[in-house]
Write a structure and sequence with these properties.
Elements lengths: L5 E7 L2 E9 L39 E6 L2 E5 L1 H7 L6 E9 L8 E9 L4 H14 L1 E9 L2 E10 L2 E7 L22 H14 L12 H14 L20 H17 L4 H8 L15
Parallel strand pairs: 1-5
Antiparallel strand pairs: 1-2, 2-6, 3-4, 5-7, 6-9, 7-8, 8-9
């Protein structure tokens, strides 16, 4: 059973829905340890006090804010909650807006909101209301001593709370050199480019079709190293920009190749993998080599 990382309530207007917050993303990153290159010894990052020099356990740590050079104010978790107890226990919906009116760059990390037993009816009502109106709730919530901007979205049977970036956290586009929106584009090139997009388009996004092939390659290399086998590394080919002069030719050839692939019969192995999609198996090994 997943472990809740926060519990509180959704509030909008005078409605209160008790909920628990759960992580919605599962990482499959490969974990490496650092070793001493000379003798292969494991390197540990340990916490030591700069005053007494002793090793400090995690349970003995407190937060400290440096208000002057070398001088700190200590703050416990209860101190942070006492500043605004209500803010640390509520997902306060401030307004509602259509999802497609929000720039996707503002979205960051999704979490599941699971209702407590006594809040299930109000939870379902809010979820269906958002779905019918095609809107999301813009809210604020305090998690781990920081106030976040967040969007409350219906997602199947669930309500998902997606933490968002504040406007000042995004780098301004004016800092970069992008082509102007009304840049000169040849009508013929635009027509073929749109045809290529149409040819490569699918009815619906199927995330189970994709997996981390780079991770698989790294694991294969690790298995080979453990077995004492050296894998030949392919020569890296750096992509080169398409020359403006032959852009039309490249578009035409891309369109032809895409059409040929679409017309080719699908391999039996590919059909089997799409019929039954299973998460990538976690390696049995315990990665201990850098």
């Amino acid at each position: 059973m997943p472990q809740a990382i926060w519990s509180g309530a959704i509030t909008f207007g005078l409605v209160t829905i008790p909920v628990k917050l759960f992580t919605a993303v599962r990482t499959s990153d490969l974990r490496f340890n650092f070793l001493h290159k000379a003798d292969g010894g494991r390197i540990f990052n340990e916490r030591h006090c700069t005053v007494c020099g002793e090793k400090v356990e995690y349970a003995d740590l407190v937060r400290g804010y440096e208000f002057e050079k070398g001088r700190y104010v200590q703050l416990a978790d209860d101190d942070l909650k006492s500043v605004n107890p209500e803010a640390t226990q509520t997902v306060e919906i401030l307004e509602f807006v259509e999802l497609d009116k929000i720039n996707p760059m503002y979205f960051d990390t999704p979490y599941y909101l699971e209702p407590e037993k006594k809040g299930r009816h109000a939870y379902a009502l809010l979820r269906e209301s958002l779905r019918e109106a095609n809107k999301v709730g813009i809210a604020r919530v305090v998690i781990r001593s920081r106030e976040h901007l967040a969007a409350l979205k219906p997602n199947g049977e669930a309500l998902v709370l997606e933490l968002m970036h504040y406007a000042e956290e995004l780098v301004e586009q004016s800092a970069f050199d992008f082509p102007e929106l009304k840049a000169e584009v040849a009508p013929a090139e635009l027509k073929v480019a749109k045809m290529l997009i149409d040819t490569m388009s699918v009815e619906a996004f199927e995330p189970e079709k994709f997996h981390d092939s780079y991770r698989d390659a790294v694991l294969a290399m690790i298995d080979a190293r453990v077995a004492g086998v050296t894998i030949a590394t392919p020569e890296a080919k750096r992509p080169t920009a398409t020359n403006v002069v032959n852009l039309m030719d490249v578009l035409q050839r891309s369109l032809e190749q895409t059409r040929e692939r679409a017309a080719a019969p699908e391999p039996a192995s590919a059909k089997a993998s799409t019929k039954k999609s299973t998460p990538a198996a976690k390696p049995k090994r315990k990665s201990s080599a850098a």
